[in-house]
Specification:
Length: 504
């Protein structure tokens, strides 16, 4: 046997053995490592309208040691101090206050917001204990898609605001999942409107406050909340409804906005799969403290939440009937699929997290106005790419992130939607949309990267896309055939090719 073959065979044997052990354990319901099971989980969100306003968060868990050994401690991750403004952490174990300690020094760089609960006595196998965690959140100076808190409004995105117990430090220890059913409550002033994930279980008013209780199933994504002292205005069109929540009555003429945004919402659901079943129409919610997503030199902000889009006052002031308003909101709605349903990894944060919503605007334009609109939109991104190339050197799209210098990010951001247009030309529009729909449905609530994207498209396309992705993600420039395809007249070869895509 050649020496260089042995490590591969040993690795294969180990993987096979591990798979057999996992299969045996799952069939016999036997634990393989230290771990615990979440039997009951509840969360409570309370809005406190002080100056400044804050949120009081309480998380309750009933936990059972279901692993192979006793446990001496548990690590718990908390919301980041920035951007959540988290403070005043308190913990109780079986109703008794307990201290939380910092992690050992070697773990702190990777988990700066994780603390350790050391048990007074070891947690034995089969024992159940109650864990209660309480803390406060206050809005940071620049509010983004994860949190905003104002005097009369607040929102929490689906990630980052809840404290989460972590699995033991063992490579086979499973991450503790939610129980089959969980509830969470939202306590707000009685004049607030509330939009949240899940089924409304109860609503009870006591004095000047109302407590809403929502239920979630195990496969539902994490909860989000949008609430405030809003005035609701609904617009109806032949394509569907669009609902506005604003701080004052909305008196603007909507023009084509309701029909165009309802069309965009319908196209996104048709081509990339249905979103939260509890959301029957996109909600556009005024968020006066929303600032951090503004582009340099711009104060116009629209950002997604899993039910619509948050818009700031500057964007509303531009006019809800304006093309700029409709364009920005359409892009934010697309992020409901490619930022809330699935979470692009760090390496794919720009190429997928930003690139897919930009590509979705091409899909929406084509559905609304035909192949000529698609051609025009692709040319727009080509022009942006060429302008961006004059201001900096290109970094490969597959390794460019939003944290990179603005010149490099601008090049990648204009190139990303072009990659998806080229992918349509390679595999056909139907295959690309089917692959993305499968990706969203199968990996919802999980992190995804370029490898997941490639596998999803290949599964439908039926061809090896390795050369395509290597060229677009790690090469420089644009393929000459792609550029020539779209730098022709509106009814030139590029349009004929676009028409042929529909018959794949």
């Amino acid at each position: 046997m050649p020496k260089h073959a042995r490590p591969h065979l040993v690795d294969s044997w180990c993987c096979a053995l591990l798979a057999a052990l996992l299969l045996l354990a799952s069939g016999c319901n036997l634990p393989l490592a230290p771990g615990y099971t979440v039997r009951v989980e509840t969360r409570d969100v309370g809005f406190v309208p002080d100056r400044p306003a804050r949120l009081e968060i309480h998380c309750h868990y009933l936990l059972e040691n279901s692993g192979t050994t006793q446990l001496e401690f548990m690590d718990i991750s908390f919301p980041e101090v920035n951007p959540f403004g988290r403070k005043d952490i308190q913990a109780q174990w079986d109703g008794h206050p307990v201290p939380l300690a910092e992690l050992p020094e070697e773990y702190r760089p990777e988990s700066p917001d994780t603390l350790r609960l050391v048990f007074v006595s070891p947690w034995q196998h089969g024992e159940r204990h109650e864990l209660d965690l309480a803390y406060q959140l206050s809005s940071p100076r620049d509010s983004g898609s994860r949190i905003s808190i104002g005097e009369r409004t607040f929102h929490l995105g689906p990630r980052g605001w809840s404290a989460l117990p972590q699995p033991p430090h063992h490579f086979l220890s499973p991450y503790p999942t939610r129980p089959p059913k969980m509830t969470y409550s939202i306590r707000v002033p009685s004049d607030f409107l509330v939009l949240a994930r899940g089924k409304l279980m109860s609503r009870k008013t006591v004095g000047s406050e109302t407590d809403y209780v929502f239920g979630l199933r195990k496969d539902d994504l994490a909860p989000y909340v949008v609430a405030g002292h809003y005035v609701e205005t609904a617009f109806h069109s032949s394509a569907g409804a669009v609902v506005f929540w604003t701080l004052g009555p909305l008196t603007q003429n909507p023009g084509p906005m309701p029909n165009r945004l309802a069309q965009a919402w319908a196209v996104l659901q048709r081509d990339f799969g249905p979103i939260d079943t509890g959301v029957h129409a996109p909600h556009l919610v005024e968020c006066p403290d929303l600032d951090s997503n503004a582009a340099p030199g711009s104060r116009l902000v629209a950002t997604s939440f899993p039910g619509g889009a948050l818009v700031n006052r500057d964007l509303l002031g531009l006019g809800i009937a304006s093309d700029e308003f409709i364009e920005r909101v359409s892009r934010a709605l697309a992020r409901d699929w490619f930022g809330s349903q699935i979470y692009p990894t760090g390496a794919a944060a720009l190429g997928m997290g930003e690139g897919l919503p930009e590509y979705a605007t091409i899909v929406i334009d084509e559905a609304r106005s035909g192949l000529t609109a698609r051609q025009r939109r692709v040319r727009t991104y080509l022009a942006r790419y060429d302008r961006a190339m004059k201001n900096g050197a290109e970094k490969p799209l597959g390794v460019t992130s939003p944290a990179d210098p603005p010149a490099e990010s601008a090049i990648a951001l204009s190139k990303a939607p072009l990659m998806y247009a080229a992918l349509e030309d390679t595999c056909g529009q139907k295959a690309v949309h089917a692959g993305l729909k499968w990706l969203v449905a199968t990996l919802h609530g999980q992190e995804v990267g370029f490898d997941d994207l490639r596998a999803a498209i290949e599964q439908v396309c039926g061809r090896d896309l390795g050369p395509f992705f290597r060229q677009w993600l790690y090469g420089s420039g644009l393929p000459p055939d792609f550029r020539s395809r779209y730098e022709t007249g509106p009814m030139g070869p590029g349009s004929l090719l676009s028409l042929s895509r529909l018959y794949f």
